[in-house]
């Protein structure tokens, strides 16, 4: 399938760059290079192997105008009173259409050396860091993000430090015009033996076919333990593009949880580099789609050192005409002996018209490794339903319990108790709303 | 308690049970033995109401109710319990949550008050102790990643909590070492009362050293070809099934 937009650079983003150029700043070289990279490649099409199952037509038909200035009226606290994780004691950074809102944000005093702030307020000194982890990725949306990002979170925890509280990064789209695109950039760094939990929420107040293009770079240093929960619940017209680049060092523990519930089209590129021995990396995700939604997770786990464990667990519950896409590549380099890599992708199909595409890919260049992968696509397990019925539960209850369990497998891997419980309830309530449940 | 009359059933067009008659009274333990492929597990499945089996003739009455008219969950609520030969792994479904739901479903049906989380935990922990199950068991997903022995003990735990009128144990002894076998048998024996009955399906006589049956039936080619008391099991242990099969033919 080819598309008319192949390698054509849509003019709108390029024109908008004049404003970026005028603003200047320490990152201008990165921005220019990013724009050039995008101009060279254009939008990906389904001819690109990495985008085979995910057509971007709904995006490329639109102008994709960067929201370089805040849109419309500023939001008040009342507008965000009901957001998820709002009841937890957190440090909250709120960004509206890619612009930091200090009025909506709440940041407590941090321990020595800990930084929790918005990126654009402290760009100086970051010019050698931003882009350093994403530079080798050819994904043109990273080029666009380099060129146009307006703001995002900057989180730094020094060696042996801890975040004062959970850090909740809230990204709200208010766009009411199709084709507007918020470019968000996050930089997260956990020093040696540091610890922290970060939640990233992507929500919509507007209903337009607007885009979010978020790039997050995460450096997890030796012995650090970082849990990162991403909750994407944007409007069913939204387009959500995300790219996460994590570099992990000796004995680091890193868990990334992706909840993809919203957006017409969502794509999460996850790029893990296990650079030193002793790392434990978990990528854990749940996608629940209905109507004409498409949720795509595309990951590369690069084992570049020996004695590392990586586990990917992705479950999808697909209803109506929706589609779930999973691409999991495990790359085990020649030095990466004693790698233990495990990958599963399970899809529960609730409707005849829903589709799952799953593509596991093991690329192993070391000989003393343990790598497994498995993928399933199917309806609910009849044996399990019978087992529950044989214990007195009716079919409806049995189906609910199984579906809840299917989602619960993923939710249960969240280490933070409060967040896990809130997500468990939220997911449960969403499943109760599935019209093809019974 | 249980009255099976000329029960005939099969899968698709293949007959497996070819006329079973069995009468089980309250307070009794019946063992059903027989070589592989004789129809033992089919009988258990048909009693529990598993999909895919066609009943082509006969009747199954549980205290005068026609069991075959009932959905599997209705049978369970009426007091039928099947201990599965291969308990199903259900990842993501918490064992405590599952078991409390089942217990309350059955209590509701009996007109008893539902157990709240506290009372349920109290009751289940006492039973778990008897079965040598550690407390983290409740937090784990149902059967997921359990060893063979744990799965079977979980079946017995469920049985103890649901307190059935009729328990059908389908090869509960398979895959168990001698210690696990003893624990499972103790669990079954503890349940035994004057108002319930147990049907123990087994391939080996071994289990019947611990669960002593009042009656032993030999199933072969879809029929009960011999019934007797517990000495029949010993005889089978010594002589195998061949002499009976020859006699039947």
Number of helices of chain B: 8
β-strand percent of chain B reads: 25-35%
Indicate the percent of residues in helices of chain B: 25-40%
Report, as a whole number of angstroms, the end-to-end distance of chain B: 31 Å
Main sheet: strands, sense, barrel of chain A: 10 strands, mixed
Q: What are the main properties of this structure?
A:
heterodimer; A: 438 residues; alpha/beta; ten-stranded mixed sheet; 18% helix; B: 249 residues; Rossmann fold; six-stranded mixed sheet; globular
How would you sum up this structure, described in words?
The complex is a heterodimer of chains A (438) and B (249). Chain A has helices at 11-23, 28-41, 57-60, 140-148, 382-389, 395-411, 417-432; strands spanning 65-66, 90-96, 99-106, 115-118, 153-157, 166-173, 180-190, 195-204, 211-220, 225-233, 239-248, 253-260, 265-274, 280-289, 294-303, 309-318, 323-332, 340-349, 355-364, 370-378. Chain A is of the alpha/beta class. Among the domains of chain A are: 73-269, no CATH class; 381-438, no CATH class. In chain A, strands 1, 4, 5, 7, 9, 11, 13, 15, 17 and 19 form a ten-stranded mixed sheet that branches. A ten-stranded mixed sheet of chain A has the order 3-2-6-8-10-12-14-16-18-20, with helices on one face. In chain A, a hairpin with a 2-residue loop joins β2 and β3. In chain A, α1 runs antiparallel to α2 (28-41) and α2 (28-41) packs antiparallel against α4. Chain A starts with 10 loop residues before the first helix and ends in a 6-residue tail after the last helix. Chain B is an alpha/beta fold and 249 residues long. In chain B, β1 (2-11) and β2 (14-24) form a beta hairpin. Chain B has one domain (2-248): 3-Layer(aba) Sandwich (Rossmann fold), CATH 3.40.50. In chain B, the strands form three sheets. In chain B, strands 6-9-10-3-11-12 form a six-stranded mixed sheet, sandwiched between helices. In chain B, strands 2-1-4-5 form a four-stranded antiparallel sheet. Chain A binds chain B through residues 381-384, 386-395, 397, 401-402, 404-409, 412, and chain B through 48-51, 71-73, 75-77, 81-82, 84, 87-88, 90-94, 97-98, 101-102, 105-106, 109, 141, 158, 162.
